[in-house]
Specification:
single chain; about 170 residues; alpha+beta; six-stranded antiparallel sheet; 6 strands
Length: about 170
């Protein structure tokens, strides 16, 4: 039983670390989900899994030699941290309403068809009355689930390496 509790505790710690690190890295690395369904699945798992993982850390923090007061304090603090994490994630749901959407594909790379130059628009849907921001990006498919998106100037590309896509909408 002790081995199982240690496995649950360390799995919870690893999941919490993973979710925190990916949240931080998403601000600095131009890695995105390839479609909204994949992002929704990831965010749903994280939204429900994060507070559950916090609660499951109790399997490693409560010891048999702890006093009942110490156990009650650990349980109370863990519930408070878990509830606070739910509050933070609900707030980030509203921040995540704005997103980039691919509108047009301008070019495909001749050597690697998973690399494209596209026009994307940034908007906040019904919460924003201003027009969407349009920008051109180079999009590289890393996996079927992830893309690497970088800004690009189409005047600076070597047109020999790229095939122009006419009237193609995403």
């Amino acid at each position: 039983m002790q081995r199982f509790l240690k496995i649950v505790f360390w799995t919870s710690i690893l999941l919490l670390s993973f979710w925190v690190m990916t949240a931080i890295l998403r601000n600095f690395v131009p890695l995105e989900f390839s479609n909204n369904e994949n992002e929704f699945i990831y965010e749903s798992i994280r939204f429900f899994g994060f507070p559950i993982a916090i609660m499951l850390t109790l399997t490693g923090t409560i010891k048999s030699k702890d006093t009942s007061g110490s156990i009650a304090t650990k349980i109370f603090l863990t519930i408070c941290v878990s509830t606070f994490s739910i509050f933070i994630m609900v707030m980030t749901l509203f921040a995540g309403m704005c997103d980039w959407t691919t509108d047009k594909i301008f070019f495909k790379n001749k050597q690697n068809s998973s690399i494209k130059i596209v026009q994307r628009s940034f908007g906040c849907g019904a919460t924003d009355s201003s027009p969407a921001t349009l920008k051109v990006f180079k999009v590289r498919e890393i996996t079927p689930y992830l893309i690497w998106v970088t800004s690009i100037d189409t005047n600076q590309i070597n047109k020999v390496d790229w095939k122009r896509i006419e009237n193609n909408k995403q």
